[in-house]
């Protein structure tokens, strides 16, 4: 009698294979619903962190201008060449570090390519960076880092081309030279890295996740846009303005025959 009761109790508390499959299916369904929402929350947190890093960069640059007759640093990377918008001269970077910035603040937390290859972007010449001293050594006047952000600064040796003005722009876009600007609240200073290579038959006619050129091609890797929705569509980017305020700007470029028109006509094109 006892044995029969014991076996019956075990059977009454067991799960059939069908029941287990139903539970697994319900869990999978819940995960498929919750994961996108969780990813959006994580990305929102990364956006906020990114905005804070841009605010630090603005503070460092204005500190520099405060000690140099209101003039912004000149980000020329190579003598006679302006370089990409992420290129920042080592002397400028060292000043920004001394003013309170950290290495991490030069890279967007949502850009996983920059996070993965940070050592390469930070110091492509391994002799330049002394991590223990937190200083750059053994570098020449043409040395630079590749930041994860774009600096809308004029260059020293050559002037950059004009910035493309979209139809809806109320103000002519221009490269920042000094803090003495008549429209500081509308003048972009540092922006998220949004770049795209020509790619036919895509939403914007560009690929924003595989951008080749420069040091990237030398190491057989691609640079990429921050805050991507997918490889053919950025969500937008944070912008630090000259007056000190930050804004999030959704990705809405002008189109030219089905191709997104960049602000800066470089290969890849840069958007902000």
Task: Describe, in plain words, how this protein is organized in 3D.
With 272 residues, this protein is α+β, with helices and mostly antiparallel strands. The protein has one domain. Helices cover 31% and strands 18% of the residues. The strands form six sheets. It has a four-stranded antiparallel β-sheet, covered by helices on one side. It has a three-stranded antiparallel β-sheet with strand order 8-7-15, with no helix packed on it. A two-stranded antiparallel sheet has the order 1-4. A hairpin with a 4-residue loop joins strand 2 and strand 3. The radius of gyration is 25 Å and the shape is globular. The N and C termini lie far apart (80 Å).
Count the E strands: 15
Structural class assignment: alpha+beta
Oligomer class: single chain
Distance between the termini: 80 Å
**Count of individual helical segments:** 6
- Count of distinct structural domains: 1
Given as residue ranges, the uncertain stretches (5+ residues, pLDDT < 50) are none
| Arithmetic mean pLDDT | 87
Q: Largest sheet, described in full?
A: 4 strands, antiparallel
Strand order of the largest sheet: 5-6-11-12
Percent of sequence in beta strands: 15-25%
Rg from alpha-carbon coordinates: 25 Å
Q: What series of H and E elements makes up the topology?
A: HHEHHHEEEEEEEHEEEEEEE
* Helix residue percentage: 25-40%
